[in-house]
Each structure stands twice: as C-alpha cells, then as structure tokens.
UniProtKB/TrEMBL annotation:
Intracellular or extracellular location(s): Cell membrane
Organism: Macaca mulatta (Rhesus macaque)
GO CC aspect terms: plasma membrane
Full protein name: Solute carrier organic anion transporter family member
BP GO terms, sorted: monoatomic ion transport; transmembrane transport
Gene: SLCO2B1
Residue numbers spanned by region Disordered: 1-39, 320-343, 681-710
NCBIfam families hit by this protein: oat
Ranges that cross the membrane: 90-111, 118-139, 189-214, 226-254, 274-298, 373-395, 407-433, 445-465, 561-588, 609-632, 652-674
Organism lineage string: Eukaryota, Metazoa, Chordata, Craniata, Vertebrata
Superkingdom of origin organism: Eukaryota
Keyword NADP annotated: no
Membrane topology reported for the UniProt record: Multi-pass membrane protein
C-alpha cells in the first residue's frame, strides 16, 4: 500500500529528488511532453516497470551463469590446483556462506533503501568476485603436465622414459619444487578462490529479493504474477548457459594466453588436459557488469502501473473463465499473497530496530516451526535440494570418470539435457496445480507421486556404468593369468619418478600404466597421421611380448552408455521438479497469513544451511573415498588420478537415492496428516451444519449488523 499512497499525494515534501519531479511533470501531460529539456526525458525511460523486468531477467540470468560456472569446471580446477573433491565441494559451498550470513537482513532493510541502486552495487560486487576467481590463473606458474619445465619441450617424453641416467635428475627436479614458498603460494591461491566465492554469495544477496519486491510494488496487481513468471523462466536458463560456456571454454588449453614456443603435445582427450576454466569467469563477470549499469538510473519509487496487459486480458478471457469461480485455487491466491507478503514487510520492518529484529526473530522462528506441515515440507525440500546441489556440483566430474569422456562433452550433455528437463518439470508442476485446481491434499498427492516415480527411475542408474580400468601396480586382479604388476622387478632399473603421470595403454591387454617408465619403455616413436600424430613407446620390458604401448589412457568400451544414463537422470530430475510449485503452495497454506513472509524466508534459510552448504562437501567426501590412486604434491594428497568406478557409481548414486527416499517419506507423512485434517474438518462441518442452520433461522435479522461490523 505504501508506494500507492505516495504518488497521488506526492506533490510537496514527499518528492525531494530530481528524478521524481521530472516524472510528476511528464505523468500529467498526454504523451509525457511536459518539457523539451532532455533531462526530463531521460528519467521517464527508466520509470517503466517492463524495462525493469527485462533488465532484472538479464541480470539474474548473468548472476546464475557466474555462480553455476564453477560447477561446470570443477574437475578442471581440481586438476589445475591439486584439490580433492572434498575441498572443491567446500569451495562451492562458500558461495552460500556469504549469502546466508546477510539474507536475514534483506527483509529488515527492504523498505528503507534505494532498491535498484542496492541491486546495482550487489551486481558490481558479483562481477568483481568473478574477476577475483580468475586471479589464481594469472599469479600461478604455467601449467606443467609432466615433471619438466614447459620451456624445455624435448624433455616432455624423456622425463617419463625408462632411462636410468636421466630418471634420477627428473625425480630430484620434481621434489626440489617443494619449498615453503611453493606451499604458501598454493595456500594463497586456494584462499583467493574461497574469498571470491564468499563475495559472490554476498553480492547476490540483494539481487533477487529486492528485484521481486520492486516488481511486486510497482506492477499492476494482475500483471505482477506474469512478470515474475517471465523473470523466473529467463533466470532458469542461467545454469544451462553456464554449462554451455564451460563446454566451450574447456576445449581451449589453460595457458592459451602464454603458450610455449613449441606448442603443446596434449589433446583434449588426454587425462592431463586442463581447459581454460578462467576464461569463462571473465566472460560471465563482464556480462554481470554490463547488466548492472541500468540499475543506477532506475528511481527509488515509480508510478504504479495503471493498466492490465492486453495480452494477459485476452488469454484470461479464453482460458480462465471457469477457473475464476474456484476461489480456493492456489494459483488464484498467489497475486494477492505476493502483495500481502510485501505489505507485511513494509509494515513490520520500519517499526523495528536491528536489535529488536534480531530479538524477535528466534521467537517467530519457533512459532513457525510448530506447524507440522510446514516443517515436513521444508524437510522434504531440504532432501531434494541436497540431491540437486550434489548432482549440479559433481555430475560433470562423475560422467567424465565413469564413462571416460572429456569435460567439454560432459558439460555439453548436461546443458542440453538436464537443465531443460528441470525447467520442464517446474512448469508442468505449476500447470497441473493450476488446471486441476489442486487443494492441499491434491498438492501433497502430486508431490508424493512425482517423488515415487523419480525414485523408480533412479534404480537402473546403479547398473549403467563402466568397469574400472586395469592399471598396472594399482588395480590387482585375482586371476591365474600372470599380470605385469606381479613382476615389479622389470622396472627396478628404471627408478621411475613416484609422482609422474603420463598414462600409456597396452592395446592388446587393455592394461594401463601410469607412465612409460612403469611399463619399462626406453624409447619413443611418433607416427604422423593426416590430422594428428600418434605417440608410441617401444622396448617395454614390463609389457607382454614387448609390444609397443600408445600414449594416453585406454579408451572405454562403454562410453556410449553416457547418453541413456543422462536421459534417466534428466527424467528423474523432471519428476522431482514436479514437486516445486505444489510444495511451495503447501508451505503458504501450512502457516498463518501474517507468518507467510517469514515462513518463506525461513524456508530458504533452512535450504541454504541444511542443503546447499553441506551437500557439495558430503558428495565430495563420498567421491574421495572411492579413489585408488592419489597424486602427491610435496608429500600431501592432491588430486585423485584413478577411481574405483563401481564404488564411485554406487556411492554417488546411492547418496542421491538416500536423499530421494528421505523426500518420499516426508511427503508421505504430509499427505497422511493432510488427509487426517481433511477428515476432521468434514466431520466438524457435518456435525455443526444443522445447528448453524437452525441458529440462523432463529436469530437471522439480529445478527446482520454484528456480522458486517466484524
């Protein structure tokens, strides 16, 4: 109500700033031509809520792109800086730390600040955090994919050959890098990324809440849900674009800005390949900075939109005539709810100081948590969000390792299949609630059905995958046939570097060796083909019959299974997302009207603290437990080189299955409670209706004044 009253009575002291005066002048004249002065024309462009919706859609799209981009390049960042999955999961979680620390105060300060300007400042901070994320690339030495310096390219292959004369210097070279300076630099690089992720979260705090409340305040009441729907639809494309951007960037070599003279001998399929992860952050940060500019020109207040959109009126005339009769439809109440929600903020927040706000918060929190429906629905959403956070963070890495595909291809598949299915699931859920006019029991039933189907379609995922590679000296097969790893004496003379990694494959037995040295190979041959050159290593004492071995990991025999696997994952995601709208409706129905604003705030707080923050760390830790060979950096565990594929699949999919089961149990309890409440309400009605009818007949006319007064 606040902004609506300001404008008609805003001639005098309530219009202090230049921008507002200019609009008042143009508003009362037809066509807004009060004055030819260009200063008066400029603000009028930004006194348009449609332009704000467009700008906010683009900003939220760019913001989600930058916050989702790290997830698309997580395995690359791990490889580049020697991080475990647990550390990289913690890095992703730090985005939520900054966000959660400040989000409580948004409702308090919401009505007191210049909202568009605050959104602009937040967006600038997000862009600076994105630039800070790229800093580790520029302060680190060029990436070395072997134990030699990149300037001395002929040493590339010789370092890992079985040559007793050169192997000792190579080993001392790699160990010689372990100085206190190296360790300090590593810690500072990781520290910078943690700070950048925290700032990314802090910058995102004002963007969504202030944007939604601003649209809700100044849009026509009938148009507000449509604008928020457009905003949500455009925003949801952000993560998909982030994975698409990741797919493009990871095809480029990491040091594209400082390539060695002789070029590099790696291909994108080489397990040592590291893509240009930092370039995506630069592009995303630039797009956020551009999207932030208009916010410094929008006014603090603008005239409320006077007209309902013609497009919306026509659509409603065709589709909604029967729906208007149903006043209890959840979707019919949503516009009113959203305005009431904002009014609640406007009325409550200005009357409290910060100290009072902090004192009142725990009491209202406990009061809200007493509602069993609210608590159970939030717990089920916590389970779903934990599943989503783990999947979004580590699914690209899982596909890479499980199906031996490149990071670029994994991101492309996820961007094209998974995210569109998520959007489709949310939209279909909303349409079902609207079209079927679902009440609370119907919403509960839809949530339970969606999750049961999701659980059913995730069962086959346990069985779709590839077996682990046979790696000499690491994976021991119990078999009567003698294996190369049973004869370590063949490479004793080589004194191979312990931290070397330059995998080679014996095509006849499909056994992989960590380096040519571990295969006992003493020479190297390059065969030039039309499009690329293939490297072979010969004179290999550890390989059966001394066959030559190929450079690179052994190809997987079942990489083609990645598409059916991801289709099942996408189908499960779509079914899980059916619950998005009905579960939100259950939360709004499960609490008192005056508590709705805070209930939604508490819901998001719980999701952040219990799901988005811990889930990536839990999934990362689970992935780390399946590692069979760690790379060592200065004596500490760095990145994992090889995983046990069966364990990796069972633990990653098992963790997802655990969260889905938790969600099913919560929704089943919600449905049981709702049915019980529904039954009790009906019995009360049936008992009280005859008595009420009789009472009305006896004292009908006398009650009317009292009723109208109430």
């Amino acid at each position: 109500e606040g902004p609506r009253q300001l404008w008609p009575a805003g001639e005098g002291p309530q219009v202090p700033d230049k921008e507002t005066k200019a609009t008042m002048g143009t508003e009362n004249t037809p066509g807004g031509k009060a004055s030819p002065d260009p200063q008066d024309v400029r603000p009028s462009v930004f006194h348009n809520i449609k332009l704000f919706v467009l700008c906010h859609s683009l900003l939220q799209l760019a913001q989600l792109m930058i916050s989702g981009y790290l997830k698309s390049s997580i395995s690359t960042v791990e490889k580049r800086f020697g991080l475990s999955s647990q550390t990289s999961g913690l890095l992703v979680s730090f985005n939520e730390v900054g966000n959660t620390a400040l989000i409580v105060f948004v409702s308090y300060f919401g009505s007191r600040v210049h909202r568009p300007r605050m959104i602009g400042y937040g967006a600038i901070l997000v862009a600076l955090a994105g630039l800070l994320m790229t800093l580790p690339h520029f302060i680190s030495e060029p990436y070395r994919y072997d134990n030699t310096s990149p300037e001395d390219m002929p040493q590339d292959f010789k370092a890992s050959l079985c040559l007793p004369t050169t192997s000792a210097p190579a080993r001392t070279h790699s160990n010689g890098n372990c100085s206190s300076y190296t360790e300090t630099r590593h810690l500072s690089v990781v520290g910078i990324m943690f700070v950048a992720q925290t700032l990314l979260g802090v910058g995102g705090v004002p963007i969504q809440p202030f944007g939604i409340s601003y649209i809700d305040d100044f849009a026509h009441n009938s148009n507000s849900p449509l604008y928020l729907g457009i905003l949500f639809a455009v925003t949801m494309m952000g993560p998909g674009l982030a994975f698409g951007l990741g797919s493009l960037m990871l095809r480029l070599y990491v040091d594209i800005n400082q390539m060695p003279e002789g070029g590099i001998s790696l291909t994108i399929k080489d397990p040592r390949w590291v893509g240009a992860w930092w370039l995506g952050f630069l592009i995303a940060a630039g797009s956020v900075a551009l999207a932030a500019i208009p916010y410094f020109f929008f006014p603090k207040e603008m005239p409320k939109e006077k007209h309902e959109l013609q497009f919306r009126r026509k659509v409603l005339a065709v589709t909604d005539s029967p729906a208007r009769k149903d006043k209890d439809s959840p979707s019919k109440q949503s516009p009113g709810e959203s305005t009431k929600k904002q009014d609640g903020l406007v009325q409550i927040a200005p009357n409290l100081t910060v100290i009072q706000f902090i004192k009142v918060f725990p009491r209202v929190l406990l009061q809200t948590l007493r509602h069993p429906i609210f608590l159970l629905v939030v717990l089920s959403q916590v389970c779903l969000s934990s599943m989503a956070a783990g999947m979004a963070t580590f699914l690209p890495k899982f596909l890479e390792r499980q199906f031996s595909i490149t990071a670029s291809y994994a991101n492309l598949l996820i961007g094209c299949l998974s995210f569109p299915s998520v959007i489709m699931g949310i939209v279909v859920g909303g349409v079902l609630v609207k079209r079927l006019h679902l009440g609370p029991v119907g919403c509960g039933a839809l949530c339970l059905l969606g999750m049961l189907l999701c659980l059913f379609f995730s069962l086959p995922l346990f069985f779709i995958g590839c077996p682990s590679h046979q790696i000499a000296g690491i994976t021991h097969q119990t078999s009567a046939q003698p294996r190369p790893e049973l004869f370590p004496s063949c490479m004793e003379v080589c004194s191979c570097p312990s931290d070397g990694f330059n995998p080679v494959c014996d095509p006849s037995t499909r056994v992989e060796y960590i380096t040519p040295c571990h295969a006992g190979c003493s020479s190297q041959v390059v065969q030039d083909a039309l499009d690329k050159s293939q490297v072979f290593y010969t004179n290999c004492s550890c390989v059966a019959e001394g066959n030559p071995v190929m450079a690179g990991s052994c190809d997987s025999t079942c990489s083609h299974l990645v598409v059916p696997f991801l289709l099942l994952v996408s189908l499960g995601s779509a079914l899980a997302c059916l619950t998005h709208t009905p579960s939100f409706m259950l939360i709004l129905r499960g609490v008192k009207k005056e508590d709705k604003t805070l209930a939604v705030g508490i819901q998001f707080m719980f999701l952040r603290i219990l799901a988005w923050m811990p889930s990536p760390v839990i999934h990362g830790s689970a992935i780390d437990t399946t590692c069979v060979h760690w790379a060592l950096s200065c004596g500490r565990r760095a990145v994992c080189r090889y995983y046990n594929n069966d364990l990796l699949r069972n633990r990653f999919i098992g963790l997802q299955f655990f969260f889905k089961t938790g969600s099913v149990i919560c929704f089943a309890l919600v449905l049981a409670i709702l049915r019980q409440q529904d039954k009790e309400a009906r019995t009360k009605e049936s008992r009280s209706s005859p008595a009420v009818a009789q009472q009305l007949l006896v004292s009908g006319p006398g009650k009317k004044p009292e009723d109208s007064r109430v």
